[in-house]
């Protein structure tokens, strides 16, 4: 598998005054897709609550290339682009592509795992997080940190 792919549908509320998808909607779709993927890999919110850890983002950036409109058929492709061997630090990219594979936007997030009791980075990385991220598809230019 080269990436997790999901077709997304835009809502009227996702539009800006120019009738194209507002900038913050991209981030919402990316966050939702990451959580759905982790859930699919067994890393559910319940598991994270029980083990007192969760993802934390250090950076989130979107590069906009083509405008998206309400009627566009869009697919979000998600994969890792960087990761430490112990999965303690990672980068995930989301590509928003039209049906014809035109790249419209790319979100990049850099993150880690936080111990929710201690309120600092989890060390060591919880094993279930290591397992989940090891399954995650990697970008063609993947970098091991």
Automatic annotation (TrEMBL):
The lineage of its organism: Bacteria, Pseudomonadati, Bacteroidota, Flavobacteriia, Flavobacteriales. This is Thioesterase. One of its GO terms (molecular function) is fatty acyl-CoA hydrolase activity. Pfam families: 4HBT_2 (PF13279). InterPro entries: 4-hydroxybenzoyl-CoA_TE, HotDog_dom_sf.
């Amino acid at each position: 598998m080269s990436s997790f792919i999901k077709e997304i549908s835009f809502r009227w509320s996702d539009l800006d005054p120019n009738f194209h998808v507002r900038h913050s909607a991209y981030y919402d779709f990316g966050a939702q897709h990451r959580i759905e993927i982790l859930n699919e890999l067994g890393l559910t919110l319940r598991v994270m609550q029980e083990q007192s850890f969760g993802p934390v983002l250090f950076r989130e950036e979107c590069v906009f290339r083509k405008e998206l409109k309400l009627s566009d058929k869009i697919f979000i492709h998600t994969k890792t682009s960087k990761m430490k061997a112990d999965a303690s630090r990672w980068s995930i990219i989301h590509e928003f592509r039209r049906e014809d594979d035109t790249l419209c936007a790319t979100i990049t997030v850099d993150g880690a795992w936080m111990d929710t009791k201690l309120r600092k980075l989890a060390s060591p990385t919880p094993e279930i997080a290591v397992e989940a991220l090891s399954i995650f598809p990697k970008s063609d230019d993947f970098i091991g940190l």
